[in-house]
Design brief:
The chain is an alpha+beta fold. Helix content is 52%, strand content 15%. The chain has helices at residues 26-37, 57-66, 68-78, 84-93, 106-114, 123-137, 145-165; strands spanning 6-14, 17-24, 44-47, 52-56. It has a 4-stranded antiparallel β-sheet with strand order 1-2-4-3. The longest helix has 21 residues, at 145-165.
């Protein structure tokens, strides 16, 4: 892999991962992007509006092993000095928690939509939507077996994703 001339123009930590934007020669950017695309789909996502890749926390080191420029950016980010007093003061005077954007994979987003929920809805909403739809579509209530199977699959897909990437799942 030839990444000579590659520049990391954005390397920023976001919830559950990093935003990484690449620039430089066509071949260098292509090779680095190929390395990123080799990750599992839930570990990376191209954000067209930011012209950057979202790379999951657990995958950034895999990219860093193959792309030296990403390794250098990761090392610089990790070695940043942290002033605890400044961070505590900033936290104490900040507005209530602003939720960072979390990438929801397309399959999970489709499952949320099938349940009638917005992508990113909490587990409690998923459970409530499953129960609401089950009352309407369960075969014992005169509904269709296929519809109920689709509801269960959608709810299981979302709950599985939430259990892997969220903190509070019953």
């Amino acid at each position: 892999m030839d990444t000579a001339g590659l520049t990391i123009v954005l390397f920023d930590a976001v919830e559950d991962g990093f935003l990484v934007a690449l620039a430089g020669g066509r071949a260098a950017v292509r090779d680095a992007a190929r390395t990123i695309r080799a990750l599992d789909p839930w570990q990376r996502h191209w954000l067209a509006a930011e012209r950057a890749w979202w790379i999951a926390d657990d995958a950034i080191s895999l990219v860093a092993r193959r792309v030296p420029e990403v390794a250098a950016a990761l090392e610089a980010w990790v070695s940043q000095p942290h002033d605890i007093a400044e961070a505590t003061a900033r936290y104490a005077t900040s507005t209530p928690h602003i939720r960072l954007r979390v990438h929801v994979p397309a399959e999970v987003a489709r499952a949320y939509t099938a349940l009638g929920l917005a992508p990113g809805a909490p587990a409690e909403s998923v459970v409530a939507a499953r129960r609401r739809l089950a009352r309407q579509h369960h075969p014992d209530a005169g509904g269709d077996h296929r519809a109920m199977a689709a509801i269960n699959h959608a709810a299981d897909t979302v709950m599985g994703w939430l259990q892997r990437y969220a903190v509070a799942v019953p």
